[in-house]
Amino acid sequence: MTSATENDFQASVRGMFDRAAAALGVPDDLVETIRECKSVIQLRFPVRLRGRYQTFCGWRAVHSEHRLPVKGGIRYAPFVDQQEVEALAALMTFKCALVDVPFGGAKGGLSIRPDDYTEEELELITRRFTQELADRGYISPSRDVPAPDIGTGAREMAWMADEYRQLYPSDIDALACVTGKPVTQGGIPGREEATGRGVQYVLREFFRHPDDVGRSGLEGGLEGKRVILQGLGNVGSHAARYLVEEEGVRLTGVIEHDGALLSDTGLAPAALAEHMARAGGLEGFPGARFVADGASVLEAECDILIPAAIESQITEANAPRIRAPLIVEAANGPVTLAAERQLLARGTAILPDLLVNAGGVTVSYFEWVSNVSHMRFGRLSRQLDIQRGKRIIDMIETTSGRTVPDELKAPLLRGVDELDLVQSGLEDTMREAYGAMRETMLGSDAIEDMRTAAFAVALEKVVRSYRQMGLA
Ligand code: NAD
What we know:
- By secondary structure, the protein is α/β, with parallel strands linked by helices.
- The protein folds into two domains: 10-193 and 436-468, Rossmann fold (3-Layer(aba) Sandwich); 217-347, NAD(P)-binding Rossmann-like Domain (Rossmann fold, 3-Layer(aba) Sandwich), CATH 3.40.50.
- Helix content is 46%, strand content 16%.
- The protein contains 16 helices and twelve strands.
- The chain has helices at 9-24, 28-35, 82-98, 119-135, 154-167, 194-207, 210-216, 234-245, 269-279, 337-345, 353-356, 359-373, 382-400, 406-414, 418-443, 450-469, and strands at residues 39-49, 52-64, 70-77, 104-111, 144-148, 226-230, 250-256, 259-262, 289-291, 304-307, 326-328, 349-351.
- The strands form two sheets. The protein has a seven-stranded mixed β-sheet with strand order 9-8-7-6-10-11-12.
- The protein starts with 8 loop residues before the first helix and ends with a helix.
- The model is unreliable at 1-6 (pLDDT under 50).
């Protein structure tokens, strides 16, 4: 049986926060101050569609303004509500602090089933939502910067940025009002795939530490590990691609809204994406076993389970049957607090959402910096870099009297481009954050799991900031 609050995502996030605050000994009054959202707005607005007015309901929650702007995605889904948006906003505060992104936390949502509308209608709705948010200061390059989340992507961000620019034509930084834009509209290369890349980098880092791998009951490296992944959207599809094509994992199961696929030999992410685009779901994919009860595949045997869809997928109800020794939370809040207690007691390792999916906000930060500096990264140094490469090759050829082979020359003569810099910054960020989380877990008797450690690293920074600002 599932307890009354077990699927309450907000209660789970509060419980996780409280556990870390207790481990750090944060005073009660400060815990109260930091835990709750500082402001939340509910918007009801009409849009005239198909000859009649339809009213839409949306929210934007700001959790903490200890750093500005605040940052967090905007979700378009029929199940969104205020509690969910508030819980996600709180996660954003701690996620940003963990990965040293100097933003506060926020989140937005619109209660809508995007598939029910045409592209033109979605554009109208998004533009009107942007006006409503802007009117009340809930979107602005200096105060509150949304990004994509479930049901939104680069297209919606481009509409929002354009609407904001039309509302404030004299704001020179207007494009920085949202991140995750198309590269041709002020976006940055590598943002679309950043969250999936981050999942890859975190897993690489985990497998660089044999002690951590051993604690989970696994052994060896990432290559060849059997992975089951839930949700082939933005985050899941990119993570699947990089893990299979670059790390050599075996994707033995995928779960989507219409069911799941199982394959002992492994599924090819590119073929899956093609099939999903054509068929609208997984059913009918050749060469794999289709299972209509998709959620049951969360319980199938594998080495690594990656929930990358929505929250509260692993609960008290199915936790006893989860067999994966390692769960990697690519989605926000896929494991409830009660389920986590059971899993930890059984020795399951859980890499927490706070760290695992922080790649998106990290690269969003790079995009925002590039927008407000009005310059693409690497523009000033690329030619210098190429010249330096040439000089190194000349030096080697002159001193050795031999010619450097073309395949060794090519990378030195290419120069560093913006995507290289973004990926390097992202990998560095994920590795640093993993290291901080790990050190905190191993260095404290009061902390026994990676989620509490990640919250503790973040909370320590937020508490310091509140104290230094004189708010506590
Ligand atoms: P998305 O809308 O692109 O993809 C979600 C996918 O999950 C869809 O393919 C959907 O069909 C599938 N899905 C939904 N419910 C499901 C269920 N019950 N079972 C199986 N599949 C289901 O969303 P996304 O942007 O990939 O986000 C996924 C998760 O990652 C969310 O929790 C989101 O908050 C989190 N996240 C996203 C980003 C980002 O950059 N997009 C960044 C950080 C965290």
